[in-house]
Amino acid sequence: MPPERRARLALVVLTVLVLAAVAAFMTLGVRGNWDFVLKFRGMKLAGLVLVAHAVAISTVLFQTVTANRILTPSIMGFDALYVLTSTVLVAVLGSAALAQQDARLLFAAKVALMVGCSMALYRWLFLGEERSLHRLLLIGVVFGIFLRTLAEFVQRLLDPNEFMVLSDMLFASFGTIEPVLMGIGWGLTALVTLWVARNARRLDVIGLGRPIAVNLGIRWRREVLMVLAMVSVLVSVSTALVGPVTFFGLLAVSLAHLAVGTSRHAVLLPAASLVAILLLVAGQTVLERAFAFNTALGIVIEFFGGVVFILLLLAGGRR
């Protein structure tokens, strides 16, 4: 089958599967007032779609800049940055004071802080000399360990009740997204998505690597910094909404590559988004209807994502 036809067919199939998952999520097990149920589930569905889309797009963009299909923002220590940020907020303000603050203000503060810190890290990692995959992984792991260690030190100073509140904040939960925060999240994500759609061809060139991209007229430092800024916004939004998810983006993008068989961003980006939405919506439906919330969707997704990460590392080692 020609590559373009395969990609189109894959997008159609993924779209149909996503629509079926959405229909199942909205209608299965409905009892009582349909207006209330559809509104309640609709808000939860909007949150799942937002997080899935943001994680998938940010992972694709990050892998484009790094020219590697193993690295993700979370693997490079972004989740540890979120843990430290939340820990410092609880330690400085206290859980009671945090509960009284405007949720939108706290959300904006977390996003701004994580974007600033991540941009400083990305600028140092990717805009200087060329670095090998192993060196980048080592830097990301060491940076993440440093941030987690610092967060654990602060957590040991917290009151037990404060620590319990913090633990709830740090546990990835796809079913408890606050509706009041989704407006800001959707606004930021929509702006980034519009920018990505307009620059899909430039992203294809960036994905060819620094030497080729520069020879083809790409202003490398400016373009890469812009892409990393988009990545920072998307990951900040998803992490601030549901907490750290290390391997979800890697799982979704790897499955999208298998489905479409191409690295063209005009195809890969929507495919990755559809796969991520399918995983979250179908997974949440199965979790609620079949298992009655007896397990956490984040744990299941992180397990399979971790398996994919190990397989990719082993495949890279054999090559």
From TrEMBL:
<feature type="transmembrane region" description="Helical">
    <location>
        <begin position="48"/>
        <end position="68"/>
    </location>
</feature>
<feature type="transmembrane region" description="Helical">
    <location>
        <begin position="218"/>
        <end position="235"/>
    </location>
</feature>
<comment type="similarity">
    <text>Belongs to the binding-protein-dependent transport system permease family. FecCD subfamily.</text>
</comment>
<feature type="transmembrane region" description="Helical">
    <location>
        <begin position="133"/>
        <end position="151"/>
    </location>
</feature>
<dbReference type="GO" id="GO:0033214">
    <property type="term" value="P:siderophore-iron import into cell"/>
</dbReference>
<feature type="transmembrane region" description="Helical">
    <location>
        <begin position="293"/>
        <end position="315"/>
    </location>
</feature>
<feature type="transmembrane region" description="Helical">
    <location>
        <begin position="171"/>
        <end position="197"/>
    </location>
</feature>
<protein>
    <submittedName>
        <fullName>Vitamin B12 import system permease protein BtuC</fullName>
    </submittedName>
</protein>
<keyword id="KW-1133">Transmembrane helix</keyword>
<keyword id="KW-0472">Membrane</keyword>
<dbReference type="GO" id="GO:0005886">
    <property type="term" value="C:plasma membrane"/>
</dbReference>
<dbReference type="InterPro" id="IPR000522">
    <property type="entry name" value="ABC_transptr_permease_BtuC"/>
</dbReference>
<feature type="transmembrane region" description="Helical">
    <location>
        <begin position="105"/>
        <end position="126"/>
    </location>
</feature>
<feature type="transmembrane region" description="Helical">
    <location>
        <begin position="267"/>
        <end position="287"/>
    </location>
</feature>
<keyword id="KW-0813">Transport</keyword>
<feature type="transmembrane region" description="Helical">
    <location>
        <begin position="80"/>
        <end position="99"/>
    </location>
</feature>
<keyword id="KW-0812">Transmembrane</keyword>
<dbReference type="InterPro" id="IPR037294">
    <property type="entry name" value="ABC_BtuC-like"/>
</dbReference>
<dbReference type="GO" id="GO:0022857">
    <property type="term" value="F:transmembrane transporter activity"/>
</dbReference>
<keyword id="KW-1003">Cell membrane</keyword>
<dbReference type="Pfam" id="PF01032">
    <property type="entry name" value="FecCD"/>
</dbReference>
